[in-house]
Amino acid sequence: MQIDVFNGDADGLCALLQLRLANPMKSQLVTGLKRDIQLLEDVRVQQGDQVTVLDISFDKNRASVERLLDQGASIFYIDHHQPGEPLEHKQLRTIIDTDANTCTSLLVNDYLEGKYRAWAVTAAFGDNLIESAEQAAYPLSLSDNQLQQLKTLGTCINYNGYGTSLADLHFAPDLLYQEMQSYESPFDFMADNVEIYEKLLAGYSDDMVNAEQVTPEYQTDKIAVYLLPDEIWSRRVSGVFSNMLANNNPDIAHAVVSSNSQKGYQISVRAPLDNKTGADELCASFPGGGGRKAAAGINHIDIDQLPAFISAFEKQYPL
Question: Rounded distance, CA 203 to CA 191, Å?
Answer without folding.
Answer: 19
